[in-house]
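Issue: ligand-bound run for zinc ion - logging full I/O for the record.

Environment: standard queue, default settings, no custom constraints.

Inputs:
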Amino acid sequence: MAQVVGPAKGPVTGFCVKCRTKRELKSSEEVVLKNGRRAIRGACSVCGTMVYVFMGSRKKG
Ligand SMILES: [Zn+2]
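Outputs:
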């Protein structure tokens, strides 16, 4: 289970596997996965599929 850190800042785009293209995500939130990786989780604005956008280990201001 991913732990929710908080809402994502600004609009987030991620690759939707169902649409096979990049889509803007709605209800996006920042999460920390069980393995410690951070990611943005959101729903595809077109088809509603849950999309994960993995972030690098470095955190930018
Ligand atoms: Zn989609």
